[in-house]
């Protein structure tokens, strides 16, 4: 068993030229930074369309590294992807590029079908075609979400065996892409791995998602919109712990395996917002209770999943991964990052963010 694991590890470690898709986004930028810094003998190519969510400022600190290259391109463009694979001869793919925000998926579901489903299938087709002589030793790692499992009631957790039951157009598109990845493993013998992770938080998080949106609004003395009664529960994981999980899974997981990644860290939205308000008051030097006054309950999200909770026992037992940070500490670090990165925050909230915010929150 041990020998088999070691020889498998060796064959995967041979992988030298890695395509990371969506590397200019929130999680992707942490994965790119980690791989560029920790594996100087790998060549890391970051393919990103630079949608509203992609930002090269996220990778300023590694942009000149000799083992890193950025390519602007669209995974939905099948001809481009085919040509790109023909030229680059990748050994492995870590696929993160996606439309990732549930609220946007409710307004524009087709964008999610195109990028998350079509884009993933385009990458799978190129991998199948250009790896056909060595399918076993190349690796296609698909980064997915716990939202494919649907919603939990008050009890239980998602395991790798939980049946898929997506409710939002976002989670339906991610579930579909997961199924395609498995279909390419089963039908064509592609070496695939999938991980399904809970909600991430940390630096470089685009302020359309709850935590960075609330930080930005408190900073600017604007209302904090809490959907419904704030009773929905999410399981929060520090983004750098997710990037470390991706590293471990990429290098050590057996072909066709799936791992759940999560923080064992469930928070009701309203409790999380109260904690965030407390931290913001402290960091901004405001009287206790100041930020809390900004909490505003607004119309609930349609089809709002009640609770997510991930059981990551398999990842912990088989590959020895565990979250490294307590949530209170991670949230404090995150707040500090946002308060000392004004330029980044300004660059992502000026321009089209303003019209998005108006459309999403005015009269809600
Ligand atoms: P993000 O929205 O911050 O980044 C997505 C990136 O993909 C952006 O850089 C964007 O420019 C790029 N992209 C979008 N469409 C593209 C296209 N057609 N071609 C090329 N690039 C394109 O997303 P994120 O939060 O970093 O999530 C990354 C991945 O992790 C996604 O697949 C998401 O489903 C998954 N995930 C996210 C979370 C989370 O909490 N954010 C949790 C679990 C899983
Ligand atoms: P979000 O960060 O969008 O992640 P996801 O929907 O993928 O879990 O939302 C996290 C939770 O916060 C979710 O229950 C919806 C809620 N929420 C608000 O209450 N207000 C907001 O402005 C946003 C963006 C989210």
Structure write-up:
There is one protein chain. With 364 residues, the protein is of the alpha/beta class. It has a domain at 6-202 and 236-264 and 303-325: NAD(P)-binding Rossmann-like Domain (Rossmann fold, 3-Layer(aba) Sandwich), CATH 3.40.50.720. 45% of the residues lie in helices and 16% in strands. The chain has a 7-stranded parallel sheet, with helices on both faces. The protein has a 3-stranded mixed sheet with strand order 7-9-11. Helix 6 links the parallel strand 5 (139-145) and strand 6. The termini are far apart. The relative contact order is 0.13. The model has no long low-confidence stretch (mean pLDDT 95). Nicotinamide-adenine-dinucleotide binds at residues 21-22, 24-28, 48-51, 53-54, 74-76, 96-100, 115, 119, 143-145, 174, 197, 199-200, 206.
Give the SSE layout.
Elements: H1 2-13, E1 17-21, H2 26-38, E2 43-48, E3 68-72, H3 78-88, E4 92-95, H4 102-107, H5 109-130, E5 139-145, H6 169-188, E6 192-197, E7 199-201, H7 210-219, E8 224-227, E9 233-238, H8 239-252, E10 258-261, E11 266-268, H9 269-284, E12 295-298, H10 313-319, H11 327-339, H12 342-349, H13 352-361
Parallel strand pairs: 1-2, 1-4, 2-3, 4-5, 5-6, 6-10, 7-9, 8-12
Antiparallel strand pairs: 9-11
This protein binds nicotinamide-adenine-dinucleotide and thymidine-5'-diphosphate (TYD).
